[in-house]
Amino acid sequence: MVHIHERPLFSEFGGSSDKNVLWFTHDVDDSKISKPARELLQTYSGIPAEEVLPHVLAMRDRGWAIHPYPCIGKLRFLDLSITQHPLFPTLIPRLQSSQSLLDLGCCVGQDIRALVAAGAPGHNLYGADLRPEYFELGYDLFQDRDRLKATFFSGNIFADQEGDEGKAENGFAPLRGNLDIIHTASFFHLFCLNEQRALARRLVALLRPVPGSLVIGRQAGNVVAGEMPSRSDPAKTAFRHNEDSWREMWEVVGRETGTEWRTEASLKEVEGWTSGMGKEEGRGVGDRMMVFAVHRV
Questions:
Q1: What pTM was computed for the model?
Q2: What HEC string does the chain produce?
Q3: What's residue 163's pLDDT?
Q4: Rounded to the nearest 5 degrees, what angle is found at the Cα of 89, between the Cα atoms of 211 and 145?
Q5: Alpha-carbon torsion, ordered 31, 34, 36, 40, to 10 deg
Q6: Would you tell me the crossing angle of helices 193-206 and 243-257 to the nearest 10 degrees?
Q7: Can you tell me the distance from the alpha carbon of 271 to that of 293, in angstroms, rounded to the nearest whole number?
Q8: Which among 190, 165, 179, 173 is positioned nearest to 214, based on CA atoms?
C-alpha cells in the first residue's frame, strides 16, 4: 500500500519566501491582470479601476508570505481557470438547480467567486485547501466576507486511509457521496501515478454514485506521458499525462471502484505552462496544459 498521507502536499516548491525564483513575476503592470479578473474585481468586489493593480500586488505579497507557490508568484490565482473550461456554461444551470460543487485546491477561492458572479448560488459551493490562511486572503482580495455563502474548509484529502469512512477531523467526510461536481486545477500533476489513482478513488467516493457526476479541471501534461523528477526531492516523481494515459488511469480507477467513467482531455501549448527547468534536466520537452473532464456513466 502506498502511504500517500506521508507525502506533504505541494512539496515541489520549498518554503523560502525568496522572490528571486522563476515562478515569481516581477515588473507587473496592468497588462498582467486579465480582463475577466479585472472585471470581477471591479464589478463583484467593487474595487475602483485605479486601485485594482496595487490591491492585487498587496494580496500577492501576502499570499507569497504564506507559501511561495507558483500560482501566487505568477499571478495564476487570477486566471479564473474554471471560466475557461469548455463545460463552464453547463455548470451554472446545474448549480442553480441545487447541485453542489467542490473546488479542490481552491487557493484563495477565485473560481468560486467567478461561479457566484456568473449566477451560481454560493451555498452550493465548497472550497478546500491545505492552507486555511488562503481563505482569509480570499475574503480580503474579493471584499466579500459579509456576503459570500460558500463553505471553505482546510483538509488533506489523503489524510485517512480509504474505506475509513472519514475521521471526525476530516472536513471531506460530510461531503462523501453528496457532491455533483468536483473542480480541481493544478492538483493531480503534483503526484506520482499511484498517488493520482488514490486521489481519483477519493474523488469517486465524494461524488454522488449516479450518472452525470463530474470531475473537471486543468493541469500540467506532456505529449509523452510519464513520471517527471520532483523539484524538491530527486527520489520522488510527479506524473504528467497525455490524453491516452488519462483515460487509462480512469479505466483502472473504474475497475478498482466498480464504477465507469468517460474521459475528455486535450493538450494545449500555452505560454507559461512549461516546467521552468532546463531541457537538460529532463523537463520542458513536450510540456503542455491539459484540460480535462471525467463523466460518470
A1: 0.89
A2: CCCHHHCCCCCCCCCCCCCCCCCCCCCCCHHHCCHHHHHHHHHHCCCCHHHHHHHHHHHHHHHHHHCCCHHHHCCHHHCCHHHHCCCHHHHHHHHHCCCCEEEECCCCCHHHHHHHHCCCCHHHEEEEECCCHHHHHHHHHHCCCCCCCCEEEECCCCCCCCCCCCCCCCCCHHHCCCECEEECCCCHHHCCHHHHHHHHHHHHHHECCCCCCEEEEEEEEECCCEEEECCCCCCCEEEEECHHHHHHHHHHHHHHHCCCEEEEEEEECCCCCCCCCCHHHCCCCCEEEEEEEEEEC
A3: 45
A4: 100
A5: -80
A6: 60
A7: 22
A8: 179
Chain center to CA of 255:
25
d(CA 199, CA 222) in angstroms, rounded, equals: 20
- The predicted pLDDT at position 229 comes to 85
Whole-number Å distance between alpha carbons of 191 and 110: 23
Locate 39 and state its grid cell.
472585471
Q: Which of 295, 275, 272 is nearest to 285 (CA)?
A: 275
The series of mean pLDDT values per 10 residues for the chain, 297 residues long, is 36 63 89 94 98 97 90 90 97 98 97 98 97 96 98 89 48 95 94 96 98 97 91 80 98 98 95 52 76 98
Report which residue type is found at 187: F
Q: What is the pLDDT of residue 1?
A: 33
Q: All 3 cell numbers of residue 152? A: 471553505
* Contacts of 53 by beta carbon, 8 Å cutoff, 6+ apart: 28, 29, 30, 33
Q: What is the CA radius of gyration of the chain?
A: 18
Q: For position 160, what pLDDT does the model report?
A: 58
Give backbone dihedrals phi and psi of 21, rounded to 5 degrees, phi first.
Answer: -135, 165
